[in-house]
Amino acid sequence: MSNFLIFAPRITLDYWRTWFFVLEACGLAVQLVSAAQAKNLPGRPKTDKLDAMWLARLTEMGLLRASFVPPKAVRDLRDYTRARTRLIHERTRCWQRLEKLLEGALIKLSSVACRTMKAKHDALVEALDGMFDDHHGELAALLLDQIAALDAKITQLGARAAELASAMPGAWGIDADGTTAPGAGTGPGAPVLNAVARLAEIPGLSPGLAQTIIAETGLDMSRFPTAAHLVSWAGLCPSARQSGPRSRAGKKGQGDTWLRGALGQAAVNAARTATFLGERYSRIARRRGKAKAQVAIARSILVIIWHLLADPAARFTDLGPSYYQARTDTDRKLRNHIRQIQALGFTIALTKAG
pLDDT tens-digit profile of 310-346? Predict the structure, then answer.
């Protein structure tokens, strides 16, 4: 009979990590559950001993659902991708501090140039005409040195994350000759691409973002029965609030903040492309605003990711920016516009253009 152990920590704390990893390394089948599930069930009074007895009883009856804890290989990749994300945020803060320092010297570069310094010569010379003295130069040199050091560390973490992602057997592709290995699935004619390459085909997703998403969701999509389950786990859909005939808009769950951040960045990137996702962003943004459009595109990208990871042989195919226009009912659209014009007190006669 195999040993089985359940551990139910508070969901807001990280104290469970030590015990989970140690017990897992000892060969025990450890199941992590959310304390909210046990809290919502009637039971014994609140003491540590009675809590343990009550959790054991609920587990025996099968009333607790196990939380998602990825395997060790994915957890290691997650440590590197999250460290890289933190350093990227710190580098952004350094750029902002440098911009603030230059503004204190009456130099406003952000209005005429970006970090790539693509600006007209006259406008750049005018922006540089300020009160920049020695102490500004010393502070700017320190910030630039810090940015350069962060760039080197980010590159190092990115290379290590790529190495770990390619080393996972579930991420391997298949070459044209049928062989599979850490470097397989990258050449021409490969029937199955590696996981990072499959996700990188989605508009807005770079290999770095693909590694971050794999580090958060894992490669085994059997943990999420449908794409809707993955979307709900990521916190990209509202919860249901229905009682009798009344249905109210529920609040969005907390979800995985690291996954939502990567998907949000991918959605912003996809919005600038002439693809189906870019056109979908434009259509939703006109009606409901840019914030809701970004969440909608992030959700669409996550649904695509679920299908690509659930079926390794699947490949992303863009529907094109004209997908909606090709399926528009022209007669119905004309009737709607004519009805609106007539409501304003005008009549109109339409003739088809030659």
Answer: 998 889 999 998 888 877 777 888 888 889 988 988 8
Main-chain dihedrals φ then ψ at residue 247, nearest 5 degrees: -125, 125
Q: What tokens were used for 46?
A: 């609140």
For 11-24, how does the pLDDT look when each residue is reduced to its tens digit (9 = 90+)?
Answer: 446 777 777 788 88
Q: Which residues pair with 13 in a beta bridge?
A: none
Residue whose structure tokens are 């190092």: 156
